[in-house]
From TrEMBL:
<dbReference type="InterPro" id="IPR029068">
    <property type="entry name" value="Glyas_Bleomycin-R_OHBP_Dase"/>
</dbReference>
<dbReference type="InterPro" id="IPR004360">
    <property type="entry name" value="Glyas_Fos-R_dOase_dom"/>
</dbReference>
<protein>
    <submittedName>
        <fullName>VOC family protein</fullName>
    </submittedName>
</protein>
<dbReference type="Pfam" id="PF00903">
    <property type="entry name" value="Glyoxalase"/>
</dbReference>
<feature type="domain" description="VOC">
    <location>
        <begin position="5"/>
        <end position="120"/>
    </location>
</feature>
<dbReference type="InterPro" id="IPR037523">
    <property type="entry name" value="VOC_core"/>
</dbReference>
Amino acid sequence: MTVTRLDHVNLRTAALAEMIAWYGEVLGLEPGPRPPFPFGGAWLYCGGQPVIHLVEVERKAAAEDPALEHFALAASGLDAFLDRLRARGIAFDCREVPGFGITQVNLWDPDGNHLHVDFTSGPAAGGAPG
């Protein structure tokens, strides 16, 4: 067995509509087909693949949730992405990964989940929305 790629991330949320809108506006992900599970949720797609599975819960119980430090997505178009974040007033932190040629843009979704979007580097372009 060889792991070949990250398939998806599963997130529980009590703010389903807000999360769908945020991931659509910020990352360009679109809701798509989802099995008829007996609970609410949405699958968000990138390039024809469901990469974020949202599971609707009545309320988020932090003590019962598994720890997730962050998840990461690879992307292109760093300048356009930073412009999108600034236009929406979304706070972010932009860092170079020393020796790897990667610029990481760190941000947090409406539920407080940390994610970073990785770009093949040019110089990091600023840190806060402006």
